[in-house]
Structures
1.
Amino acid sequence: MNLRPYRIIKRKKTKTILVGNVAVGGDNPISVQSMTNTLTTDVKKTINQINQITEAGADLVRVSCPDQESTIALKTITKNVNVPIIADIHFHYKRAIEAAESGAACLRINPGNIGSGERIKSVIQAAKDHNCSIRIGVNAGSLEKNILEKYKSPCPEALIESALANIKILEDGDFTNFKISVKASDIFLAVASYEKLSEITDYPLHIGITEAGSLNYGTVQSAIGLGKLLWSGIGDTIRVSLSADPVEEVKAAFQILKSLGIRNKGVTIISCPSCARQNFDVIETVKIIEEKLSHIKETISLSIIGCVVNGPGEAKETNIGVTGGGKKFHQIYIDGNISHRMEQKDFIKHITNLVEEYAERIRI
């Protein structure tokens, strides 16, 4: 019996494709990706950044390939990282071919922008020859000229028409190993476009709010837009696009997925905003503990509540709970049961050790 049916998200069933060794769509986990912001020709810096993004938990990493020097560099990059690389291609069909030959696991392109039918066929053939998937990347900011002239400005119908036209190009080339995105910086436009596209196709969808903004504002924008889509069961792979370190994009993506119970990774801290009832400095305590536990990969819930009003109730719903019981003592719960009391002295160290020990037990 499911005691919390309100938590169930029914995800739309889509086709499964492979991006390197990562399965996207179907019943596979929603994958998280980010993109490097280094010069791709600076191989050392690019590899280092990819490794940082991967360490943060990314399943896929996109790399820009605007010129031949970048696609040549890609050959070394792909051999020295442990994550499938998506080559970001815009207009030049030769860059797409070179990227496939250099080991890219996926090509992010708009087939309609590549050029003649023969050029498109050559890109599709390169993808087939090198077991490379494709992402059709429709963007409100770079719609085809004829579509923009027809609709006058970006709208859901315009993005959908572009997506369908590009789908037909690939299908006519007998190529179906692709996913689709219809991104916009306007969350209403993006959400409406993805909802319409989800109704008419079962290809996997890469969802994102493009150019969402700074770390704080962009995270909120993305949480609203992506949260709405994911809650509706739409989305097979995601990127949170921020004007920030790519690692922050990965962290934000996992926070969104974690909030919806889709992918739980690491320690989830449930904490109160603090008030005059608090028996210790909740804000500073959470800040320190969150940093000290950032290395833990196991799924663990930790509640840190400053007083006894909501503390016991929250503690019973988490793996480890802390309730401020008085000026000198705090009540500690393990798996919903009262475990022990402790003094304020070495409080943070004690809680950190408890979580690390818990992680070790469930890891074995």
2.
Amino acid sequence: MSGWLAYLEQLHPKSIALGLDRVNLVRDRLGLAPEFPVILVAGTNGKGSTCAMLERIYLEAGYRVACYTSPHLLRYNERVRINGIEATDDALCLAFAAIEPARQETPLTYFEYGTLAAMWHFMQAGVDVAILEVGLGGRLDAVNIFEPACAVVTSIDLDHMDYLGNTRESIGFEKAGVFRSGIPAVCGDPAPPLTLVDHAARVGADFRQIGQAFNFVRHADGWDFVADNEVLHALPLPALNGNFQLYNAASVMAVVQALQTALPVTIDAMRAGLSGVKLAGRFQWLDTQPSVILDVAHNPHAALGLAENLRRTPVKGKTFAVCAMLADKDMTGVARAMKEVVDVWYVAGIQQARGAEAAVLLDCLHAVAPDAIVQGFDDVVLAFRQACLAAGDDDRIVAFGSFYTVADVMRALPETLGDAWRPIK
């Protein structure tokens, strides 16, 4: 498996090369035309949560459910699941081997190759529905080579601006590229850019926006899904933390409603799916002393959601932040979003090609919070270990800023916390 992944990494001179011509060519050579419904999930934040809720609901309804997400935390296998179970190394190697002869001399990126392999695997397994998470943008992302039965855009904000543009309008247009003529197009952003709305109209998509075609009403212990022709009462709050998750959950219900003819789902399966969903690294709380919270928030929009969650769950002691980010992210914006909810900062470098050095993150933090208590470390594990030494039983440690940050902490948990560590479910 490791040999295949190393091979995939060197096939294309760029790690990201947007465009569909190359991957379309290999798809056609392979004859990858799934007959089962495909759901495309795009958006700046909330894609992973939306995929996880859809996956759980359709599993509870008795379907054979495929899910392709990215990036992974600890193992590549996390990206490719059937019925919630990660693909084995052998299954993935078989899929990669099927792609290679069809590729011929066509250069594919790591993500493009993996996308084709995932779909080949799903088709071989005979799944009932496939949920595909967009890697970057939408219009030119590899998953967009497959025709969706429904497409959803969760939110639109500033991220990946080197590739998608530096305004919500340009980013909204790129994400709207997953919409198709006559196909349900769900938007979970209550105030989407006009470019997204206009593109949906231009292509003739069956556009359904939260706050217009559907909405949610929250109650003390649950919520109602409200649509033009349906109200679903007393739904359980999603088992994922945060008020913003109701926007994702409502979008999920809109997708389920749109596909009811092709994929019928009972109200009991909907409720069970919302209650039983799990997703690592999204305000994931570990029952330790001090408590540890893992969150992959890596842009200002996600950081605002993390800060809201921290305010809603106050702690007796202090909040220690272990933060490391990629250099192409808005580090200043993230620091600004989090500065009021963090008492002590331990910032670190990420040992990856795109990783920002601790000194750069320190400068961003000092610019927005000059009085902040901050220490810098060469890597995330050192920062996390120091936070564990400094924090008391009534304190909490929040590790965030990147998938790499959370993954490094996950790997360090058993050794660092010892008897206080609990395996991550």
3.
Amino acid sequence: MQSNTESKTAGQMIVDYFRDFGVLKETRLEYWAIQIVNVLDCTFYFALLTIVTLFLSEDLGLNDVYAGYATAFFTSATSLMLFFSGLYTDWLGIRKSLTLSLLAMLALRLGVVVVGLTPSLPHRGLLAGVLLALMAPFMAAIQTVFQSACRRFTSKRSRSAGFNLWYLFMNIGAAAAGVSVDVVRKFLHLHNVHIFTMGAILAALCLVVGLTMIRNEEQVVGPDEPPGSRAEEAKVEHKPPWQIASEVFREPALWRLLVLIALIIGVRAVYAYLYLLMPKYWLRTIGPDADIGLLNAINPVGIVIGLILFIPLANKFNVFSMLVYGAMVSAFSLFPLALPWRCFSNDIGRAHYLMAIICMVIVTIGEVTWSPKLYEYTAAMAPKGQEGTYLGLSLLPWFLAKTLVSVFSGHMLEYWCPEKVTVHGASVPLQQAMIHNQVPYWHGPAAMWLVLGLYALAGCLIAVSIRGWLTRGARLSANPSVAQ
């Protein structure tokens, strides 16, 4: 009898979850325009992350180390620009900053296409690296525009549903990115550079959507909010960037947020491994026909399902617990990869497919648990007119993680997962050497994942140990939109 009641309660919570999306009728056309741009831009963004090191190596001839350095420069520039992109968004407003960023991205993506399709150009690797670095400030700006717009174009009552739906659309774009990579590489047999061709087309479509559908930038307020507060809430003051920065850095809560962000960088790095390490790792352990796009699509597809089924239950728990313990789950996702591959199958390709699927399922459970809550909680803390700045800071763990991973990715691949290894004086493919047990554990891919998993887990354990300081002065309830 008790289990029937519990089942009914859980079912009712899921029904309530869908009913909650009904409050999105309080949003305006601008919210849905942003979600269209979100899906289209994320399709290119995640496809870029999947193929960037492969593009630099396979199309332009850079080795693992130099491809890693070029990617590191690109992601480092994005990280540095992230805070300033928030100031830029708050200063210029959503429509202008989105339009300028998309125009720049359209031109730069076309530039990469020209470099990739012109073999006679000298120093193509360097030229592509410069173009990628020039994309950085505009990529950062687009990300902060998305989150600032989600706050601006939703009312207090619809904000939680609005952020959940934004995160769902982002992962739909990520799933489409995985499919597009395999379509370009395996079915159309085109060079990786045509991911940038797709990106240019999508940027043009995003421009059309933004220019035709985004007109009103005032804060959306619900009909049940007091008249006095509605007028005050709807008014948005665009302050100069230096004034915004001065006010933000005087907030004590900001520094606690930055410490928490620093501690979860190792966990955010797990998601960077999916794009910067795993494509080459899969091609070298499974084989050259590995479905790298399909494997990377498992995570976003799982996120979409998880947001529908798990979020209603997750809202019953404290936001800090959701962040830290969900991050721990993501950290544990790397440990199946650290096991000897013969634990899964005697066929090395099948074994690594199974390891990849288990890893993706675990990392997806962790991400559903904690990642959307970081964005929503940060948005709830942001003062009016500073949404872009605070939300830009909430993205720092992702971009910083990519920077750190990119710097060391080439070295990690060369040491633990090279294309070929030397056995008895002869150079043989890594997969062949692994089949014949000619690769010691501490010099093979499994050791790489063990080290990286322990690093990710350590930050979570430190966060738990200083929980009192990290949560000092904050009212962290089950629903982060209440804990403002």
4.
Amino acid sequence: MSLPSLNLTRLDGSPEDLLDYQGSVLLIVNVASQCGFTPQYKDLEDLYRKYKEVGLVVMGFPCNQFGRQEPGSNADIGEFCASKFNVSFPMFEKCDVNGTGAHPLFIHLKSVAPGILGTEAVKWNFTKFLVNREGEVVGRFGSADGVAKIVPQIRQLLGQ
């Protein structure tokens, strides 16, 4: 099942459609600024810079549902990401990934790529979903799964 057309909003309020990323390999991550996994921003940025020219897009979706570790406004999040990690990959407005108010993108991702034992809920910050160029979700990785674990599959999807 490929990704649907969905409205997205960047941290700065500018609108996009998920289909704007059609044909790219996507690594979609729910992020947080005050989490033990927050240093993963550095590896995600390094990954993006290394492979963006061949079709990889890292997409960050801040979420405050896990330990209230993303309490700031969209502007605060943007400033933090820029000043601490020099993030240049697309960052989107803060959203929920679980529950009745979950962003439609995460509802879709969880339904086609359930977690361990078939559970759909995202368990914590920095859960990652890997999407191929055809828009199919081909992997789900937990918070503790660093970029190094995902790189071989990304390289394969990029034809590297």
